[in-house]
Amino acid sequence: MIETADGRSGAVDKPTVLIVDDEPDLLELVSLTLSRMNLQARTASDVNSARRMLKAEKFDLCLTDMRLPDGDGLDLVAWIQQNRSDLPVAVITAHGNVESAVRALKLGAFDFVSKPLDLGVLRKLVGSAIRLGSRGSGDRTSVTFRGPRLLGNSQIMEQLREMIVRVARSQAPVHIYGESGTGKELVARLIHESGARSEGPFVAVNCGAIPTELMESELFGHKRGSFTGAVSDKKGLVQSAEGGTLFLDEVADLPLHMQVKLLRVVQEKTVRPIGEAREETVDVRILSATHKNLGDLVGQGLFREDLFYRINVIELRVPALRERASDIPEIAEAILHRLGRRANSETPQLVPDAIETLQAYPFPGNVRELENVLERALTLCTDGRITPEHIKLRAAARTPAAETLPAAPEEIEGALGDKLEDMERDAIVKALEKTRYNKTAAAKLLGMSFRALRYRVKKLGIE
């Protein structure tokens, strides 16, 4: 029972935060800050005390220092992930010790805050974590929201949905990779809508569409008079995402000088508009995406390695459409329904042969190409039924070079396939041995992308 402001006693369910630190001054400062947020604070001075309290009591957030008398804050993060996975945990790191923060995020920490504590940043972090916990278990198992959805019931899509739910509970940077047209921005929006920042803005930036000379001003803003043409103050896209999510599409197209500035945003959570003397703190979660192989670009010196590791704390792969051909009928039906509604007509029907034609095609342009194909077919059909004759596919993609060769007897074809696989396996093994099993270097030596090498290694069963 807690006494209320008017003197009456009653049960008040205040969210409770466990603070784990061995510095009395810091415990007092954080406890006072939380009390002003109408939160209850409990404290522990070491890992063992924290574990005992976590086993015995209910908490809405755990905030732990990295260095404790009887262990490491990372050990406590790992223990919470195993025993109290529903509890958000944030870490307090020493200034500039970003490596520890990244390790904590990879272990499942919700977020991090650096010493000396910026109370504004701390309040925003705690507020996001409490909101996440108050959303209820229903939101943690669903990734649907008003707007486009991830369609398909294939196993690979179920795994993707499960990963979205998991990463939505964190504030760690996520890098989404996949071929063009697979729906990377949709995945980013689902992460945003399923997490604690769903009420904040979602700001999508196409890094390849902004002219290089305007990129700093567009991203970080500028002050009036800072350069010719700056007639008024302008808020940057990063600041526009305050309290929400910043999605950097085609992040591989960022020039090197902008990569340095973005690194500071990720590490220090600060930004400096052009012409401003002081840095401003920002509270944004950064999601990024590209169809390029960032690992290869790092090896070529076109993308900063330190930025790569900061934005790639969690990696999420969006599968190509050809990897989930069983989902094509459902996706095609949804696209046709939308196209029919837009044209004020009934939804056209795909005949079975047309569906088989679509499922046999590799779709190098993925869902975006499927939509293009169906829109063209809708224009060509006249009776509301789409047949294979209405479906125009790229001949080069539909008829690989191998298919133009004369048909070979099955036993010879199988033997040739085995020999080719053996030759490919030997070449990959030799390249891996030569590069001391550095896959990025081996891929470069073989003249293929890192992702292609990883796929071949898995397919050929190379240990």
Report on this structure.
- This protein is of the alpha/beta class.
- It has 20 helices and 20 strands.
- A hairpin with an 8-residue loop joins β15 (270-271) and β16 (280-281).
- α3 packs parallel to α4 (98-107) and α11 packs across α13.
Q: What topology emerges from the helices and strands here?
A:
Blueprint: E1 2-3, E2 9-10, E3 16-20, H1 24-36, E4 40-44, H2 47-56, E5 61-65, E6 67-68, E7 71-72, H3 73-83, E8 89-93, H4 98-107, E9 111-114, H5 119-134, H6 137-140, H7 155-168, E10 174-177, H8 184-194, E11 202-206, H9 212-220, E12 221-222, E13 234-235, H10 237-240, E14 245-249, H11 256-268, E15 270-271, E16 280-281, E17 285-290, H12 294-299, H13 305-311, E18 314-317, H14 328-342, E19 349-350, H15 352-359, H16 366-380, E20 385-386, H17 395-398, H18 410-434, H19 439-446, H20 450-460
Parallel strand pairs: 3-4, 3-5, 5-8, 8-9, 10-17, 10-18, 11-14, 14-17, 19-20
Antiparallel strand pairs: 1-2, 6-7, 12-13, 15-16
Helix pairs in contact: 3-4, 7-8, 11-13, 14-16, 18-19, 19-20
Unreliable stretches covering 5 or more consecutive residues? 1-11, 136-146, 398-417
The shape is globular
Question: Residue share in helices?
Answer: 40-55%
Number of helices: 20
Can you count the beta strands?
Answer: 20
Write down the overall mean pLDDT. 82
Record the strand order, biggest sheet.
Answer: 4-3-5-8-9
The proportion of residues in beta strands is: 5-15%
